[in-house]
């Protein structure tokens, strides 16, 4: 039996400490279902990289909350998104995670066939049913918006403002949109993609990314390049602030060796600096002079989250066959270190020691705002 929360927080902690969410927020399947409905299915959700749908007929499927979403590229080049459900008897239309069709999408059950624009174009004996409206019985549309080279989808009947939510999160962090658009991520090439299967609640991963109190403990390679992170400061949350590279670091690499030429669009003041951005509910973006690291989380259960991480470089770097290993390895290690501690934390969320939650030290206090945001989305009292 699951329980419903009546309060987002335990009794306030004293002095420097503030309380966290109680442990059952990370273990209760009922709360996770509410999050699926009120967060993942209600807000803009970053689904696929636009370049992964390179040609007309390309498609990718992505899990968004409780729904499977199909994103396609039409014959005229636009991206469209639909619920991946045949309108006839409800079979999943595309069973593969990605693929390409010549012209149409056909259900493998009864051969109902849809155009890349979602319209019903054919079905066995359809001509004998002239009263069937092919638009009405087309695929159910999902709102889609392209930004930063990714397709963001929203399942809400009336999606919230993309500018106020997604872009607004970036402006809150960097102070403007020009700073991130200077990296021209939509024109970068995919150098490496790593998929992590993390046995932890999605909120633990967000919380971990939002603070650096742990950096000196578990991220020696990162703090060698970004020494101010060894102080445990939440530097990435000072508006417009980017952590400066160590004088001994020639690039954002696992051993501090030189990376690649800086991206052509970034300003001098962005050189030799690292910026980290959280876009709720499931995107992390890391900006460094010669590449961009883009994380997308896909929460699948209260204790399981898939994280897909893309390393993006100037097209010429990837096309040249340059060795990316030292560049990729730095944040791959950071990811592995982070996800290991999230998995270490997950079992304790069910412990009576964490029944009323834990505490946040001052360097972590901004996580409290994230907890308040979650509680507000769930309609939980503080």
Explained architecture:
Strand 7 and strand 8 form a beta hairpin. The strands form four sheets. A seven-stranded antiparallel beta sheet has the order 2-11-10-5-4-3-6, with no helix packed on it. Strands 12-17-16-15-14-13 form a six-stranded antiparallel beta sheet, sandwiched between helices. It has a three-stranded antiparallel beta sheet with strand order 7-8-9, with no helix packed on it. It has nine helices and 18 strands. The chain has two domains: 45-159, Rieske Iron-sulfur Protein; 176-378, Naphthalene 1,2-dioxygenase Alpha Subunit, Chain A, domain 1 (Alpha-Beta Complex). It has helices at 29-40, 162-174, 178-181, 202-210, 215-218, 220-225, 315-319, 325-345, 366-378; strands at 18-19, 45-49, 58-64, 67-73, 79-83, 98-100, 104-106, 113-115, 120-122, 141-147, 150-154, 189-198, 243-244, 273-279, 283-288, 291-301, 304-313, 359-360. By secondary structure, it is of the alpha+beta class. The chain starts with 17 loop residues before the first strand and ends with a helix.
The proportion of strand residues reads: 25-35%
Spatial extent as radius of gyration: 22 Å
Number of domains: 2
**Strand numbers in spatial order across the main sheet:** 2-11-10-5-4-3-6
User: What's the helix count?
Assistant: 9
At the fourth level of CATH, the homologous superfamily of the largest domain is Naphthalene 1,2-dioxygenase Alpha Subunit, Chain A, domain 1
Sheet having the most strands: 7 strands, antiparallel
C-alpha end-to-end distance:
24 Å
CATH architecture of the largest domain: Alpha-Beta Complex
Number of strands: 18
Stretches where pLDDT is under 50 for at least 5 consecutive residues are 1-6
Helix content: 10-25%
Structural class: alpha+beta
């Amino acid at each position: 039996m699951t329980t419903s929360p009546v309060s987002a927080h335990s009794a306030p902690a004293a002095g420097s400490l503030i309380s966290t969410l109680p442990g059952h927020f990370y273990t209760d399947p009922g709360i996770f279902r509410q999050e699926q409905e009120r967060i993942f299915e209600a807000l803009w959700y970053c689904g696929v990289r636009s370049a992964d749908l390179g040609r007309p007929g390309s498609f990718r499927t992505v899990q968004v909350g409780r729904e499977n979403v199909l994103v396609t590229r039409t014959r005229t080049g636009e991206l469209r998104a639909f619920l991946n459900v045949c309108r006839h008897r409800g079979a999943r239309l595309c069973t593969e995670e990605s693929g390409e069709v010549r012209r149409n999408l056909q259900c493998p059950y009864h051969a109902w066939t849809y155009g890349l624009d979602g319209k019903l174009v054919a079905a066995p004996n359809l001509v004998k049913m002239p009263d069937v409206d092919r638009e009405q019985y087309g695929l159910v549309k999902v709102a889609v918006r392209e930004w930063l080279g990714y397709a963001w989808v929203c399942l809400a009947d009336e999606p919230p403002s993309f500018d106020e939510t997604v872009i607004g999160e970036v402006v809150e962090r960097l102070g403007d949109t020009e700073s991130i658009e200077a990296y021209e991520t939509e024109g970068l090439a995919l150098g490496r993609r790593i998929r992590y299967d993390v046995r932890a609640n999605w909120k633990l991963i967000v919380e971990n990314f939002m603070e650096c109190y742990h950096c000196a403990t578990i991220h020696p390679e990162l703090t060698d390049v970004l020494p101010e992170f060894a102080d445990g400061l939440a530097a990435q949350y000072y508006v417009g602030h980017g952590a400066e590279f160590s004088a001994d670091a020639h690039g954002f690499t696992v051993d501090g060796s030189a990376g690649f030429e800086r991206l052509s669009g970034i300003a001098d003041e962005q050189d030799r600096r690292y910026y980290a951005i959280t876009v709720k509910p499931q995107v992390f973006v890391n900006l460094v002079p010669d590449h961009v690291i883009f994380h997308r989380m896909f929460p699948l259960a209260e204790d399981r989250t898939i994280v897909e991480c893309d390393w993006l470089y100037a097209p010429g770097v990837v096309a040249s066959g340059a060795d990316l290993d030292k560049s990729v390895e730095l944040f791959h290690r950071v990811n592995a270190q982070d996800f290991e501690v999230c998995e270490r934390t997950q079992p304790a969320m069910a412990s009576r020691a964490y029944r009323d939650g834990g505490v946040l030290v001052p360097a972590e206090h901004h996580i409290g705002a994230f907890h308040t945001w979650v509680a507000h989305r769930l309609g939980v009292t503080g």
